[in-house]
Amino acid sequence: MSLWVLVPISLPIFTLPGIWIIYAMALHNQHVCPVNNWVYNSTCEKSLDLQRGSDLCCTLDNIPLISKCGGVPPESCWFSLLCSAASFIVIVIGLLRYAQLIHKHTNSVLNIEGLFAGWLCAAGLMIVGNFQVDHAKVLHYVGAGLAFPASLLFVCVQTLLSYRASETHRDVQIAHLRLILTAMAFTTLTLSGVFFIQESFVLQHAAAILEWIFAIIVLVFYSSFSLEFGSISSETLAAMMTKQDGATEEGRKLEKV
């Protein structure tokens, strides 16, 4: 079995505990309210971090969105590091998946779209992590506008490719699993987006919870590639390089013509 199988597994192994630790830090420092809090106020006499006691006054600025948990120091430092590391792993997974499908002789425009969707997700994740919402709101929302839709596009494209490239009963089962995860991701992201723009405090809090669920679903989806990356070898990477060399040579011939 190839050691490349560890790459998809490493993404949720490091990211999920990391983001929950950041949430715990934000909760301890009273930068966000707990996820089980559904009561919000328009204003409070004191900001959340200055309040004492168990009966906290929360506003919409304290909703535990993922980006809010990593919005201010010291959580923002770890959030930036986590997003940067995760974006690098996403790039590697996207490239390995692209090479694997080329090696299976199932390369297509859809495969290229899957590669770019993964890389767009990585770029958005990098921007989200390094431009916190409380200090660079426009850039942060640009990053979120890349990361979330690109993540959904990636899981949709990869699910289609899983069915196209399936050769065994096990491949079909993996494709079915990804289809279920894709349906769940589509539902949670759509509902999160709809709830987020509502004025209701309860719906906005629900949007935050759905955002967390969407992130977990996508991470589980990425980890599913570990079921296939065990077959990746030097021949897989060579097939990708051969494809690139062939495309370059074809381009040179067209230039001469």
Automatic annotation (TrEMBL):
Residues 4-231 form the CWH43-like N-terminal domain. Keywords: Membrane, Transmembrane, Transmembrane helix. The keyword Transmembrane helix applies. Belongs to the DRAM/TMEM150 family. The keyword Membrane applies. Its main location: membrane. InterPro entries: CWH43_N (IPR019402), DRAM/TMEM150_Autophagy_Mod (IPR050911). This is Transmembrane protein 150A-like. One of its GO terms (cellular component) is endomembrane system. It is a multi-pass membrane protein. It is found in: Endomembrane system. Pfam families: Frag1 (PF10277). The chain crosses the membrane at residues 5-26, 78-98, 110-132, 138-163, 175-197. The lineage of its organism: Eukaryota, Metazoa, Chordata, Craniata, Vertebrata.
